[in-house]
Specification:
Blueprint lengths: L4 E4 L13 H15 L4 E7 L4 H6 L3 E7 L6 E8 L1
Parallel strand pairs: 1-2
Antiparallel strand pairs: 2-4, 3-4
Length: 82
């Protein structure tokens, strides 16, 4: 990978357990581990129907939004400087 950059490629919480803070806790653990390994930035992509709000509440900023991917939705790219 690129020095100083971490990428969260996939995080999934089963629908049964959503809304209970598990996603937030997993994200916090990932950010802490990335920082401990010397990362300066974290990149993540999500779809508009998934969890962009989770990342934004955690301090990630929208960098790009690709419409029509998947059809009828958007793929959102977010970044956080740590």
């Amino acid at each position: 990978g690129i020095a100083g950059i971490a990428e969260l490629t996939l995080m999934w919480v089963d629908e049964t357990y959503r809304g209970l803070g598990h996603g937030r806790k997993l994200l916090e653990a990932f950010v802490a581990e990335a920082a401990a390994r010397g990362s300066l930035r974290i990149w993540v992509s999500t779809h508009d129907f998934q969890a962009p709000g989770l990342y934004e509440k955690a301090g990630f900023e929208r960098i790009a939004e690709l419409t029509g991917w998947p059809e009828g939705h958007s793929n959102i790219i977010l970044c956080k400087t740590i």
